[in-house]
Amino acid sequence: MTRRTFSTAVLGAATASATFAQSKKPIRLGAPIFLKSDDPEVLAREHKRLGYTSAYFPPFDSPDANLIAAVRKTYTANNLVIAEVGAWVNILHPDPATRKKNLDYAIDRMRIADEVDARCCVDTAGSFNTKSSADPRNVSKEYFDATVENCRKIIDAVKPKRSKFTIEMMFANLPDGPDSYLQLIKAVDRKEFAVHMDVCNVLSSPDKYYNSGKYIDELFKKLGPWVMSCHAKDLTIPGGRSLTFIEVVPGRGIVDYKSYLRNLAQVPREAPLMLEHFANDDEFQEGAKFIRKQGADVGVSFV
């Protein structure tokens, strides 16, 4: 992608942002389910029973081609959109053999995402730390360049036609916000590379936390045209002398969901909102109820 091409893309993104308010669309809401089954029809019915219209790809162990095809056919017939196929492996592991194994797995997950017409395959960029935790090198040029290389390898190996590869933003490694993600989009230079949005992961300071609506507006203004799917949770800051954020059910924290939903309803492609990280169905249902209420308050509907 040349500087001129990227500038044109960014200009187009800005234009799309300016017209968001004229293209508001219903949102698909989803969550993990706790029912265990290898039958896609059973899983689809459970999603519908819980009121979800989007889903994670089921946590099957090594699904074969027939099972993958059955998931796509059954979910489509039940008006369920697969929001994401998660890779969730460290594709920057410092051990070369482990890194290759993880990269091969991510490639396979990208292939599955394309076969089931998922909005995206998502992973974090990884870590130079063996435990996939914070490391000072994770905000370096070396890290950025290695991430670009990995994204290209995954996309070029699969050449997806329907799905996109995305990186989840994190507070302690790149991309850590909208500007570094835009830089990554430019550097990866593949139309199959897009954005997975998790606003809570980058509300990384008291200013962003207490003014989350303003920061969410910035995230979508800059990245909205590339957003394929999003995560939903909430944050609180407990007492103490050090800064710590705790993930909680939406409605128990102070994240500005009205801003989140208003922006999400205006992205160019229908991007599902997926609840995550809670203990049971009751907590997921509590979060879903809160999100729907917040949507109603700002004129956002749900499929």
Describe the structure.
This protein has 303 residues and is an alpha/beta fold. It folds into 2 domains: 1-30 and 198-303, no CATH class; 80-196, Divalent-metal-dependent TIM barrel enzymes (TIM Barrel). The chain is built from 10 helices and 10 strands. The protein has helices at 3-18, 40-49, 65-77, 96-115, 141-158, 178-188, 206-210, 212-223, 257-264, 281-297; strands spanning 29-30, 54-56, 81-86, 120-123, 164-168, 193-197, 227-232, 234-236, 246-248, 273-275. The strands form 2 sheets. The protein has an 8-stranded parallel beta sheet. Helix 6 (178-188) runs parallel beside helix 8. Mean pLDDT is 93; it is low at 1-11 and 14-22.
Short description:
The chain has helices at residues 3-18, 40-49, 65-77, 96-115, 141-158, 178-188, 206-210, 212-223, 257-264, 281-297, and strands at 29-30, 54-56, 81-86, 120-123, 164-168, 193-197, 227-232, 234-236, 246-248, 273-275. With 303 residues, the protein is of the alpha/beta class. It has 2 domains: 1-30 and 198-303, no CATH class; 80-196, TIM Barrel (Alpha-Beta Barrel), CATH 3.20.20.150.
SSE diagram, text form:
Elements: H1 3-18, E1 29-30, H2 40-49, E2 54-56, H3 65-77, E3 81-86, H4 96-115, E4 120-123, H5 141-158, E5 164-168, H6 178-188, E6 193-197, H7 206-210, H8 212-223, E7 227-232, E8 234-236, E9 246-248, H9 257-264, E10 273-275, H10 281-297
Parallel strand pairs: 1-10, 2-3, 3-4, 4-5, 5-6, 6-7, 7-10
Antiparallel strand pairs: 8-9
Helix pairs in contact: 1-8, 4-5, 6-8, 8-9, 9-10
